Amino acid sequence: MPKTSKPLSKRLLILCRDIAVLALIIFAVTQWQSRNLLEDNGSIKVRNQTLVTLDGETDTLFAESASEGKNTLIYFFAPWCNVCAFSIGNLDGLDEEKTNVVRIALDYASTNEVQKFVDNNHVEGQILLGNDELKSEFNIPGYPTYYILDSNQNIIASSMGYSSTIGLKITEFLNSQ
User: What is the rounded end-to-end Cα distance, in angstroms, of the chain?
Assistant: First the structure.
């Protein structure tokens, strides 16, 4: 007896189910990864800090965003992190009118290592050099880690792991309302 293929509607239903299960798994993994991040309900205010840039200058975390009243996305990365290499370029798609992007390198052996990462990944924008104290203050368990702060420097969103340009734009839109 010849085998008949399933009707198109049944195949579409199975495909939709599989996509829903995959989305649920991704959501659960993301929630589990982010479980130890700082609270993102606006109850934690981040203090302004002065850090050294990759160019050897000093800059503060909120100099630009505080004066312009926009949100700040802080992106923590390590130069040895493969996921960071894939995701750091996605920050370039954010609207600079709505969001100030701050890139902070952590867990690096030398500034040369950070510079190589920046060059290899064609990173645009300034890079700040973090330290163990900053890593501890932001409770960074892995890379990349993102925090979004409102114009008052309160944490309003957080995430860890790869974020696509589309995901970042959706987050930017939702947190600019």
Answer: 61
